[in-house]
Amino acid sequence: MLKTLKILFIEDDTIEIMKFNRVIESLQTAHQIIEAHNGESALTILNEKRNLPDIILLDLNMPKLNGIEFLTILKNDDLLKYIPTIILTTSNNYKDVKECYKIGIAGYILKPLKYEDYVFKIQKLLDYWSCNELISKIN
Fold first, then answer.
1. CB under 8 Å to 2, separation ≥6 — which residues?
2. In whole angstroms, what separates CA 31 from the centre of its chain?
3. Are 56 and 65 in contact (CB under 8 A)?
4. Which residue of 36, 65, 106, 121 could cross-link 41, Cys pair, CB 3.0 to 4.6 Å?
5. 94: number of Cβ within 10 Å
6. Within 13 Å of residue 133, how many CA atoms lie on the same side as its CB?
7. Which residues contact 111 (CB under 8 A, 6 or more apart)?
């Protein structure tokens, strides 16, 4: 049985937010989406330490606090560092990929150009984390 996820979606692009929400609707899932438009607002949400997300989907290229800076702060927190964080970005720069894995991400997904490919990737990502044993043990 698949678990309903609380997902912190950190993205500054309004079009990408709309696209993600459209995919979630089309998949007819009951996942709860918490939106943050940059790393600073995401940290504000997380620092409340209540109702923590099961997973974090993070864009790398954001104003104020970029994805790598956010990850560094997140992974230095004794509680928050265990939340699986998946990069969802357009950056296929190998240096970014390597740095993110070095910091401790759970996955790195490139946003495809075709909408159908995006739907496929999001569906597979959510299916995996909905049945992952780590998620069922944390909550």
1. 127, 130, 131
2. 13
3. no
4. 36
5. 8
6. 0
7. 16, 88, 89, 90, 118
Q: Write down the CATH superfamily of domain 6-138.
A: Response regulator (3.40.50.2300)
Q: Name the one residue in this structure whose structure tokens are 């993600």.
A: 20
Instruction: Find, among 59, 35, 27, 31, the residue nearest to 124 by Cα.
Output: 27
A 10 A CB-CB count for 126 gives 20
Q: Report CA dihedral (41, 33, 26, 20) to the nearest 10 degrees.
A: 20
Q: How far apart are CA 139 and CA 90, in angstroms?
A: 31
Give the start-to-end residue ranges of the domains of the chain.
6-138
pLDDT by residue (tens digit) across 95-130?
999 999 999 999 999 999 999 999 999 999 999 999
Residue 46: both structure tokens together: 């997380």
